[in-house]
Automatic annotation (TrEMBL):
Transmembrane annotation, as ranges: 36-57, 63-81
Phylogenetic placement of the source organism: Eukaryota, Metazoa, Ecdysozoa, Arthropoda, Myriapoda
GO MF, one example: stearoyl-CoA 9-desaturase activity
Superkingdom to which the source organism belongs: Eukaryota
Membrane topology type: Multi-pass membrane protein
Major place of residence: membrane
Key words, A-Z: Fatty acid biosynthesis, Fatty acid metabolism, Lipid biosynthesis, Lipid metabolism, Membrane, Oxidoreductase, Transmembrane, Transmembrane helix
Name of the protein in its database record: Fatty acid desaturase domain-containing protein
Domain notes: The histidine box domains are involved in binding the catalytic metal ions.
Organism, as annotated: Strigamia maritima
Signal sequence interval, chain numbering: none
Amino acid sequence: MSPNKDVMIVEDLTADKPMIPESKEAVPMRIVWRNVVLFTYLHLAAVYGLYLLIFQAKTLTLVWTYVLYILSGMGITAGAHRLWAHRSYKARLPLRIFLALVNAMAFQNHIYEWSRDHRVHHKFSETDADPHNAKRGFFFAHMGWLLTKKHPDVRSKGKSVDMSDLLADPVVRIQKKNINPSENKMVSVCTLGEGHHNYHHTFPWDYSASEWGWRINMTSMFIDAWAKMGLAYDLKHVPKEIVVKRREHNGDGSTPWYDETSCEQYTKGL
């Protein structure tokens, strides 16, 4: 009889903690200022939210807030923690999809990263490989670990933890790939062509803000129409060759909206 993969994972997580040597020299904490600013804002917003809760919020708002609190919490506790990190039970596809959705509401990274860090935490508890090593102090274990760069041991040991079970779960893979979307067709439709975020940040001076010509880009049509009448001019755009070269160098190889017609149409400066 072949070994049970889930049992192997549980045994791996509950085995005696490996004896790994501590770093000879203490690695200084490197602050991630983006996270510091974000967490400061979130806590200030929470204080303001408490004021609104007491003095202004309506009953239905309070009920809805509590419902979201419970659902997002379940996305972490029942989802990322007990289901995916520890495999302590199994869930059918509809429940896994639901847990992945409410997990995203908790704003605690995607399931794969959460589960990987938690497995590392159990396997290398209270060592430099522990993401929230309690030996580095109360504040660090509580939230300081979220405000600093990961210790090198956390990164190296994280690569050694078996995550094949999560990679085999399509729900986890889809959430991991799409939890921070930068391209969204509906956003482009609703914002008249402003949803081509990857391209715009790569070539911010391009008037079309997209390599797809008029496709889902009413603003480009508007500017081009005025250009035809001579009232808009000096329209800046990036040659197709440069776009393709940058895509091959920095992209992931996928071109979900691509076809030669739209790209050729774009380079002709319609």
